[in-house]
Specification:
With 71 residues, the protein is an alpha/beta fold. The protein has three helices and four strands; from the N terminus they run E-H-H-E-E-H-E. Strands 3-2-1-4 form a four-stranded parallel β-sheet, with helices on one face. It is globular and about 30 Å long.
Length: 71
């Protein structure tokens, strides 16, 4: 998952999604930042929650990698 929803998050997603077989990442969604007013990932990934739900989401979905892209 990606934590963040601003421009940095979109750049990160597009960079790794170009060749997922090379990076090994398969994104299933993102966590929107509490202070982020812009949401650039909503047309690319599913919104899974916010900062207060990170632990629950990671445990329930058995997430192994979390990429930070906060502004």
């Amino acid at each position: 998952i990606i934590i963040g929803s601003g421009e940095k998050a979109l750049e990160l997603y597009l960079y790794y999604n170009k060749a997922p077989y090379i990076s090994g990442y398969r994104f299933i969604g993102y966590i929107k930042g509490e202070q982020e007013n812009i949401d650039t990932l909503n047309s690319h990934l599913k919104l899974l929650g916010n900062y207060s739900t990170i632990n629950t989401i990671v445990q329930q979905l058995k997430i192994t990698d979390v990429l930070l892209a906060i502004e």
